[in-house]
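Input for the complex:
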Amino acid sequence: MFASTTYTARRERLRKDLGSGLVLILGNNEAPMNYRANTYHFRQDSNFLYFFGLDQPSLAAVLDVDAGEDIIFGDELTMEDVVWTGPMPTIAEQAHRVGVHKTLPFNDLAAFVKKALEQGRTVHFTPPYRHDNMIALSEMLGQPVAKLKEMASVPLIKAIVAQRAHKTPEELAEMERAVDISGAMHVAVMKAAAAGKKEAELAGIAAGIATGMGGALAYGIIMSINGQVLHNHHHYNTLQSGQLLLGDHGAETAMHYAGDLTRTCPVDKRFNQRQKDVYNIVLDAEVSAIASLRPGLTYKEVHLAAARCMAEGLKSLGLMKGDLDEAVAQGAHALFFPHGLGHMIGLDVHDMEDLGEQYVGYSDDVQRSTQFGTAYLRLGRALEPGFVLTVEPGLYFIPELMDQWEAEGKFTDFINYGALKDWRTFGGIRIEDNVLITKDGHKVLGRPVPKTVEEVEGLRG
Ligand code: GLY
Ligand code: MN
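Predicted:
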């Protein structure tokens, strides 16, 4: 964890931003996999980590804005716990490390919250996303689970976003580490990929590096010869000559800051001409988008510029046609680029998504699009120094979508459906890096991971 002053300063700022009331932050619990004692890998709640730093299950915290007091609720280990899981510092000792000097048994929390409500005090909380915490909160507040999301505190959400969106130097050091571990995963996978290998073997290499370097996977690995399936978490295919392998995977450090990188390489040692052509279109969009990043620009503009750049490339291949400004304005490019250019990243791979993308990625000035494709852009608002975001353009040939759009006669002024007949098994290409917005421009995080055609082929032997 960071020094205790980091956590006290974060809580102090939250107190100032909110002005009054109680903030209730529930930590995460162990989550059973197939029976109670066989649990998923434990992951602490990111807001709890950010303000209270303690990385263990069954804790909750209250920040009393009016009294200027913080309390951690948790239970000491019993001797049986010690026998099975080993000794631990007391809750009070741990709380001390994050600058909290009052601790209470977990069971006191419900009465504490009830008393505050009876006194007419505001209890601020964030939208719960784990079912056990939904039930706990519902019982504590005496409200149905279905109402909790709308009851979540907008002032608290806004205050958290305002802090967490701007990464500090000590957070950036962690994020550089996360990207470096993620880069090592990609290099190892691109070196090992070969016809006859299973996607699962390569996913295992990536996962081994993430855990072997002291962290964990930041999200489920995408390792697929079907890169056109955007969130494909199956790894049962065997790589075959002539195919592309799309790897989208990243590590989180022991302190839970995430990296999120994507690379695409040929299963053969070299890209074929068609693969190279599409690869270079995506690469050009990625490199140009990164080069343009600076404070003040909206990420929606960057997204649309990347879409325009790739539409141009597709026109040169004879797959798109007509007025490309109009094509992008109407959303025709989304046949090939149906997702957003990127998202904030930090303690979560999609940073703060639990708080609501409207608050994290949009503003009163920049509203989310409702158009297919651009609607999936998670970050649209103006960029500010300290933001860390992903830049991840991609081009995909999705047979089901091509068939549907052609059958509907959609965008026939912009899409050359005849030429697409020959591209049904191409797959998909995405390239992704993680970038910090600085005072004057931007900085790509981590050591460079091979990305040009020549660099990628250089890893393939
Ligand atoms: N890494 C997967 C995503 O950004 O959605
Ligand atoms: Mn991503």
